[in-house]
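**Reference record**
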Amino acid sequence: VSWESLDDATQSRTWPYQSIRRLDRSNPYELVIDTFADGKYSFKMTTKPIGNEEFSAITDYLAAARTAARQ
């Protein structure tokens, strides 16, 4: 999962799926990524919301990465 800062490239982040502890979406315009190493990051979408299909796809990838890491 990647996030790119448009204001400051040094603030951009990339997390491998295995490094994400939890992904939350309280509404389509807010996303919280809780990582094992770095803590929580909160994002507010200003133009396009994260739809149910997109959120489900990301959580499916997270689940698959955890399963693969256990094997």
